[in-house]
Each structure stands twice: as C-alpha cells, then as structure tokens.
Write a structure and sequence with these properties.
Blueprint: H1 2-6, E1 9-10, E2 18-21, E3 24-26, H2 28-40, E4 48-52, H3 58-69, H4 86-89, E5 91-92, H5 93-97, H6 106-109, E6 116-119, H7 128-132, E7 136-141, H8 144-158, H9 166-174, H10 183-196, E8 201-205, H11 206-211, H12 213-224, H13 230-234, H14 237-244, H15 247-252, H16 254-257, H17 285-299, E9 306-307, E10 316-317
Parallel strand pairs: 4-6, 4-7, 5-6, 7-8
Antiparallel strand pairs: 1-2, 2-3, 9-10
Helix pairs in contact: 3-12
The structure holds adenosine-3'-5'-diphosphate.
Amino acid sequence: QKLVQTLPKEKGWLGPDLYFYQGFWYPTRILKAFISFQNHFQAFNSDIIVATFPKCGTTWLKALTFSTLYRNQFPWDENPLLTFGPHQLVRFFENDLYLNNPFPDLQNVCVYQPRLFSTHVSYTSLPTSTKDSGCKIVYICRNPMDMLISFWQFMTKVQDGESLSLDEAFDKFKHGIIVHGPFFDHVLGYWKASQENPNKILFLKYEDLKEDTGSHLKNLAMFLGVPFTDDEEKQGVIEKIAKICSFENLKELEVNKKGAHISGVPHTGFFRKGEVGDWSNYLTPFMIECLEKLIQQKLNGSGLTFKLSSKTSNNIASA
Ligand code: A3P
C-alpha cells in the first residue's frame, strides 16, 4: 500500500487504476502478485517460461509448448488439453500462482517435468534467477494493431456491461497505458534479449505461427531440447500437435466453453476470432496512419518487423 501511494497512476482501460512500476503499468492486484513473484521465485535450470504480452497468442503458445514438451508423457488421445484449458495446464505466475499467495507450492502444481510456467511480466522485471539460471523462455508477440483490437474486445467482454470506446482505448495505447505496457517496451525488451541470447530466449510472432505452424513447432521443439525424431515426423506428430492446438479445435472444446480462470476471466474470453488483420474491420484511417508512424518510430533500428495482414503485399511495418 505504501509503495502504491508513491507510484504514478493513470485510469485503466476499464476497471481498476494502473500504477507505473519499474517502467510498466499494473493494477494493484497484479502488482502485488508480481512483486511476490519477483522477490521469491527461484528458477531451476530446467524450467521453461512462456512469456507474452497480453492478447498476443498466450493461450495458443501455452497449448503448443505443453503438447510439444510433454508429448511422450501421456497417450496421445489423452492429451490433457482435451480436459483442461491451456491456462489451467500452464499457470501464470502473477495472474494465478502468486495472486493470493506469496509462497505458492510450485512443486505440486507441476504435474509434468520439466516445470512449465507463464508470465506477462517484462524481461527487465523478471526475477534474477530466471536470467542467471539455465531456464529457457519462449516469447510470442503480435502486430500491435491486432493486439489492440483483441485487447479492446477482451476488456469489453470481461468487464460485463462496461464499455470503452475504441477512441479511448487507442488514445491510451498510443501513450503506452495498458496493463503490462508500454507494448513496444515489452516487445523490444524480449526482442533484444533474444538477439543477445538466442539459446535462452526463443522469439516468436503470432503471424508467422499462423502462416506456418509446423516449421515453428519444429524450431520450438529443438529449442526446448525435445526435437521431433524422423519417426515422429513420418507419423505426422507435428501436424497432430498443430491441429489439437488450433483455434478451431480449442475454441470448441467443452472445457474452454465453460467456467472461468482463477483471475475471473471466463474461459471463452480467451477465444475470439484468431485471425491476422482483423484490425482493418475496426481502426479508422486516422488511427491506422498514427499506428503505422508509431510502429516505424518505436521499431526504428531494432530489426524487428510485424506483418499487419495475412495478404502477401503491403503488409510489413518495419523500421
Ligand atoms: P483475437 O481477439 O484477435 O481473436 P491471448 O491468448 O494472449 O490472450 O490472446 C488472445 C488472442 O489469441 C485472441 O485473438 C484469441 O482469439 C487468439 N487465440 C486463442 N487461441 C488461439 C489459437 N489456438 N490459435 C490462434 N489464435 C488463438
């Protein structure tokens, strides 16, 4: 409480106010859990962490990483994804494990080994042990226009009844005000770290995964230290994982159609359209021009680019 009183504060998109701590925006509930995570989590060399900015493909990457990493630990037709949601199987640190408990029993929450967790926390704010140990991080980001629309739709859905105009959401996003934002600082933090240490951080993009899930699954498996064998490739294991984790499949599973995540988000809230380029149905020409300029300015010199649509022409926003 004392710390919060000293922090810069802004009105959130909907719901609680956001506080600026160590360069990023958080509501108090998440901030408290994040500080417990930061102070108390001890990474193992074998740990894997799925790190993402919200609405960039967290649910999908959790499903893909879980199914790839543990594929030999359960019979294929008993993949736990059929009975548990991706967020129940790969649990968030700050949105779940540390939410109501500064010292969660992490050994008992991980049924399979090596341990697999997830976070939306920025690279710079991760606990020291995640950086000093051999623990590996898989990060996914998404073009900011689709992320913005996905986030805006999500907020309206989870804060029943309340609504935020796209103009307001756009204005806040432009100024970096969004839970776990600024978006570009988050993405660039992981991007630079992955450039410096590609064996520790695998940097993925939602659009690339959509375009060719199979080849990215192969890279993911290699990165996790569990490459697909020739036999597995012949048996179509890669295609099977891509299929079970697909938007169309996960969205229709009973487990993802009912109930809610521990944070209060209904499971259905994690599945909307799952497309690249849906922003073009919402953003005005003015917003598009502003965002294109912002992307150019923020990514300038970084080498990071985003595909803005699934069409092949005129779709790269880069420095
Ligand atoms: P849209 O709102 O654009 O549909 P997160 O998992 O980080 O919260 O991101 C949610 C976004 O990923 C939503 O995007 C959601 O529909 C999409 N999504 C969820 N599961 C997916 C899957 N298996 N494949 C592709 N996209 C998925």
